[in-house]
Amino acid sequence: MNWDLIIFYYLAIVMIFSSVFAIFSRHPVYTVLLVLVMIVHQAFLLLTLGAEFLTVVQIIVYAGAILVLFLFVVYLINLRKETRRNVFIRLVSLIAIVFLLFGAFLIKNLFILISLKPSFRAYLPFSIEEKSNVWWIANYLFRNYLLQFEIIGVILLVAILGAVFLIRKVKTVE
Amino acid sequence: MGEVIDRLISIIIAAVILLVIALLHVAYLTYAERKIIARMQQRLGPNRVGPRGLLQPIADMLKLLTKEDLIPYGVDKPIFYIAPFISLVCAGTGVALIPLWEKFVLSNINVGILFILALSSLSAYGVILSGWASNSRYAFLGGLRASAQVISYEIAMSLALLSVVLMAGSLNLVDIVNAQINSPYKIYLIPQIIAFYVFIISAIAECNRVPFDLPEAETELVAGYFVEYSAMRFAIFYLAEYFGMVVMSALAVTCFLGGWVGPFKVPYVPFFWFLIKLYFLLFVYIWVRATLPRYRYDQLMGLGWKVLIPVGIINLFLTAFLKLIF
Question: Cβ of A133 and B110 within 8 Å?
């Protein structure tokens, strides 16, 4: 058994279980925390592939910004009543069946992966040893895909401006 | 297999040594803070335990360890238990990435500066969760304030650090120090003076220190987000705050003050200059606490969003422009 595989299985199992529990948990704060666990493990999965820049960006953007905002929203609504309801329980059987089908598919793929016994570094598309991960990403992003990058930037800016427009105070004429 | 275990053991030993040194620093930082503030306020400060009160932090630690661990009725227990540890881990892990010396850095990774930012953004969880899980109005308000504050000031801090990254051309902390040594001014404090001020102000806000200690404002919120905590769990929050101060100061030393380099070499103590600079910045933290009154909440948010972030962005553009020319 090589170390890469042990780490991979640990990360994969924790990710699958935390995602499942996040779906089944009725308490929104626990759901957010389980998604946090999932995202951190996903970040470390990227680390095993040698993508340290993506790891850190994943933690900063998803765990540090987006999930904190989710938690903020959950924080501001009163959930004491809603957590006691049993609405979700009826759906459990349906979700379980879907999940089992999906799980079977995943396990099939997992067996293929075991039979390969890869050293994960062998899958790297190019050697990141000579230049750092950051260099390669910057190179691709700002040389080959500059236009797409700028378009995404403009779209996000439009979204922000839209949000600011929606929450602005309307001045009434006196 | 054996090779991996050998490496693991050597890493663990180095980590434990670093952790013990950092913990001692944190413990005596509390003592230094009490002594310096006492001096500035014409008092004596702790002077009973040991000569000049030097054993005071140890006595405090023992007291907090042996106190009863109270869990109030109605708290959300699992989250209440883990919240202080989230705070401590996120604040303390940053120490591993700081290069104390060219040859002594526990984990020399290519994205060191970003990793510290990631950890500081994760430390918001400890505060928010403890405020929520306590099921108390004071803690709740403290948690709300803290999360808004940490998220806003993080942006200004990242912008200040980005201009340093732009000048050094690397995200690796050792490379940043080496780039500073090779630059004409030797330290980035002179060309990046604006970024330095932005960084220091946001670092104080990130650590929830006076004058930005709104989340734990005694006069309004008793103790803010950790009001329901007692004994060891309270001590862990306290430790996390001081660890945050140490890490932020060490980051400022690395990014702006030239790390381990000084005017002349001190034999046998390679990290002499690093520690001197670190102690100076920690003194500034305490000095600011003794000097300035607390901000109002809208002033705090206004300073973050309307002053520091625009200044940071302008500085970033200026740096990029100048780097393009020269």
Answer: yes
ipTM of the complex: 0.78
Q: pLDDT tens digit string along B127-145?
A: 888 888 887 788 888 888 8
Tell me the domain boundaries of chain B. 1-65, 67-325
Any bridge partners for residue B104, and if so which? B101
SS3 B48: coil
Q: Name the CA dihedral angle for B247, B249, B254, B258, rounded to a multiple of 10 degrees.
A: -160
Residues of B in contact with A36 (CB under 8 A): 125
B111 and A63 in contact by Cβ < 8 A?
A: no
Over residues A103-154, the pLDDT tens digits come to: 777 776 666 655 555 454 555 555 555 666 777 788 888 888 889 989 999 9
Residue of A nearest to B83 (CA): A33
Class of domain A3-124: mainly alpha
CA distance B142 to A87: 33
The tally of CA atoms less than 13 A away on the side-chain side of residue B98 is 29
Q: Which of B89, B114, B144 to mutate to test the interface with A (most CBs of A within 10 A)?
A: B114
Conformation bin of residue A117: beta by default, left when phi > 0, alpha when psi is -120 to 50: left
Residue B221 has what DSSP assignment?
A: H
CB-CB neighbours of B36 under 10 Å: 17
